[in-house]
Design a protein that fits this description.
Chain lengths: ~240, ~120
């Protein structure tokens, strides 16, 4: 028994265990998603998070320990962003042709994303810190956190809201777009990248390569746009 | 595979240098993406043998984009108590705002696309 415990302590202190758990959970989640025909509700990010979260809670493991192993995967977000150049280059003619619709959707979507989120929490009478933290929720986490910080809010709360926004967008986008009868995958992808950053983009790539391409463009454009929009929206509100 | 990963990391490194060097609020990897577009242009324009296999690592990463968000997502599980005090306004705001943003973006895109014939 004491030997087992020593092994457990040894394993939980290195990155190997939690890296393996993360990859294992994703392998299971991705397999389930594939088996379900990429059904929008069988989302691999959400499933993996629930699986890993369950293991952490059951084993009483803290996030700092978990991240020792998971950081190697987290690091790959940067290279993956660079890799978005591949589909962008492949579809460059279609992208260039779509410049005006993208620009219009960017301005309208970015303003609605910030104003609607701020308006709802404000109408509920939530404290100002919460109103500030939710304003940039549609933008990729790093940028959203620095926007919140500059506005005097709590970047940690923003990080949580950003991830939840990503998962909500990834879950609802397919049924919503089908209900609206939108078959233009440029428009569908751009909307989900704008509203739900990388997690929405991961969903878009599952559905269609053109949707994924336009979602990737929207992440970058909306990061810049939101950095301009949020201070204005919060300024008007204050 | 290793060569293409090295090219991607090189582009990211360049992007970080540019972003930090100019003190811009845009993340380094975004400039890295622009650098990667430059690499792909070079490949198609001059077809140097060294850039022939520049795609596999990037294709692999994009095929498993969902995996890369798992560590950050797990962070949410540990921080759900941050939402406890204001869970109702936050839940309503996230749902309403995300759906509204999707609808407004996609409708605007389609309207303008139809207007300009794009």
């Amino acid at each position: 028994m004491r030997e087992d415990f020593a092994l457990w302590v040894y394993l939980t202190q290195g990155p190997l265990l939690w890296l393996t758990v993360t990859l294992g959970a994703y392998a299971v989640a991705d397999w389930l998603s594939l088996r379900a025909g990429r059904h929008p509700l069988v989302n691999p990010v959400l499933l993996s998070v629930v699986l890993v979260g369950g293991v952490l809670v059951a084993s009483g493991t803290g996030y700092a320990t978990y991240f020792e192993g998971a950081q190697f995967i987290h690091f790959l977000l940067g290279p993956a962003t660079v890799a978005l150049a591949l589909p962008l280059w492949e579809h460059r003619a279609l992208v260039a042709k779509s410049a005006l619709p993208m620009l219009a959707a960017l301005v309208a979507g970015s303003v609605v994303a910030a104003v609607s989120a701020v308006a709802v929490v404000w109408a509920f009478g939530a404290p100002e810190g919460v109103v500030v933290a939710i304003a940039p929720k549609s933008v990729t986490a790093g940028v959203a956190m620095s926007i919140t910080e500059a506005q005097g809010g709590d970047p940690a709360l923003t990080a949580v809201l950003v991830i939840l926004t990503g998962i909500i967008g990834a879950l609802v986008v397919t049924p919503l777009m089908n209900a609206l009868g939108i078959r233009d995958y440029r428009a569908r992808g751009f909307a989900v990248g704008l509203a739900s950053h990388g997690i929405g983009t991961a969903r878009a790539f599952q559905v269609d390569p053109v949707a994924g391409t336009f979602a990737g463009i929207a992440i970058g454009l909306n990061a810049v746009m939101t950095a301009v929009v949020v201070p204005v929206v919060l300024g008007v509100m204050r | 595979m290793i060569g293409s990963l090295a090219v991607i990391l090189g582009c990211q490194l360049l992007g970080e240098v540019v972003a930090r060097g100019l003190g811009l609020p845009v993340p380094g990897p975004v400039f890295g993406m622009a650098a990667m577009v430059g690499v792909l242009w070079l490949r198609d324009r001059f077809a140097p043998p060294v850039l022939a296999g520049v795609e596999p690592a990037g294709r692999f990463l994009l095929a498993h984009l969902s995996l890369l968000f798992v560590p950050a997502g797990v962070g949410v599980v540990g921080n759900l108590d941050m939402l406890a005090a204001e869970w109702l306004p936050l839940a309503v705001a996230l749902m309403v705002s995300t759906v509204l943003t999707l609808v407004v973006s996609v409708v605007t895109f389609r309207l303008v696309a139809r207007m300009v014939g794009a």
